[in-house]
Amino acid sequence: MELHESLAELARDHGESLFSDADAFRGALDDYLDEGSASTGTINLLTDAVRLGALQGMLTMLDSGASVDDAVESAGQRLSRDRGSADIAGSQWACAVLGYALGKVPVSLATRLRPDAYTREPPRSTAPRPAYDDDDATSIAPPGQTLPPAHPPAQQSAQQSPAQQWPAPSQPAASYQAPLAPSLQPQSGSYGTPPGGTGPFAYTATPGYGTPAPKKAGSGLIIGAIVAIILFGVVAIVGIIALSGGGDDDPSSDDTTTATDGGSSDTTTPTIDPALTLDGDGYTYQFPNSDWRDITADTQDTTGTIDSIAAPGSSISNARGNVLVEESSAYGQTDVNELTSEWKTVLTGSTNATPTDIGSMDIDGKPAVGVELKWTNDNNFDVHQVAYLVVSGDNQYSITASFRQGDDGFKDVFYDILDTWHWDE
Q1: Whole-number Å distance between alpha carbons of 268 and 321
Q2: Which among 397, 417, 421, 414 has a CA at the least distance from the CA of 287?
Q3: I want to staple 355 with a disulfide (CB 3.0 to 4.6 A). Which of 126, 256, 268, 371 is the partner?
Q4: Using one digit for the tens of pLDDT, what is the confidence trace for 167-202?
Q5: In 3D, which of 49, 40, 44 has the Cα closest to residue 19?
């Protein structure tokens, strides 16, 4: 019997709520399947899909109206990223077969992704199998409850953004700990010493399994965990931007740009200078002065969701701060307030800081929800972040400034930038 049929019988015999509890699910697999009918790696993969929230995210995405193919693809990419694995197809298969077991994914998709996944026949069940129905999207959480967000692990690498260590794919079930719920983060990356170099800002695509780089002394390293968007539990992205504090001088002493009040929108039409224009996907904005430049091409984007990064100075490593724009599908949502709660949840998980509401504002006529976070990174450097979430067209955008606490000048420059913002839609 194929594995997806075995899982469907497991759901019939033990109930759908089993698929929301990773430990119980793993125990049921061990008891239910015959010895040797599924490899340890396959069982770990399926358990991780439950434990890391990929299954629940896929079901929630289906609830919001996403197509089955899109939901399976997104959930599989998330699961692969969170496990630190390059096997995206295998992760998508795991989400598909679990979805099939719950009557949410057609058998054709489950078998197409990995048609060679079989088990020996499990005990027969007399209960009817739930029928697949695109319009029948139910949660696996118990009635009247939602699955609580998971909590980040306690250990952190020296130069890694908080709450971004992920369990190794071979981790046994007995040591499972609930990790941060789907985080908007790049391929579990970290900044450390580059191979053969001495700079502190080289990106590595492995989630901190090796020896962490030593802490940076002196001005301090800011590692900004800039969130993008989770839509009702479906991961989009997290971009991680590193920047230097630039010494111990007064951070506002070299401010060369006239600032506006934070949070207010200047009604004056901005002057457009092509030489100072950043042209993003669906938007443009003006640099404050000629010291700023687009450094997107200099930053590795392993998630494909970082749209633009800009900073003053010759490189991000010595910049006073930076502005990051991340973009992903809005999955049919048009009200930014419907996305705000999960956005804040991911911000908290990425930084261990509590977002503080700073009110709403319009960014070129579109409603934007704003928060700020203050936290201290692993190098004892005080980080300040101001972030806005916006929906424009079919996409959602996270616009975030990262800078040193106390640098109100850079914060004001960020609002000057927002005053020049223009959406193409």
Answers
A1: 26
A2: 417
A3: 371
A4: 333 333 333 333 333 333 333 333 232 333 322 222
A5: 49
Answer for the pair 166, 207: CB distance below 8 angstroms, yes or no. yes
Residue 20 CA to residue 11 CA, distance in Å, equals: 11
Domains (range + CATH), the chain = 3-113 (no CATH), 181-423 (3.40.1000.10)
φ and ψ of 372, to 5 deg: -130, 150
Predicted model pTM: 0.46
Residue 23 identity (one-letter amino acid): D
> Hey, what amino acid is at 35?
E
Q: At what angle do helices 40-51 and 54-63 cross, to 10 degrees?
A: 50
Give Cα separations from 338 to 329, 331, 350 (angstroms). 14, 12, 20
Side by side, which strands form the sheet with 306-312? 292-294, 306-312, 321-329, 395-404, 382-392, 366-376, 356-363
Calculated CA dihedral for residues 308, 85, 148, 301, nearest 10 degrees? 0
Tokens of 302: 């392993």
Residue 106 tokens read as: 């057609």
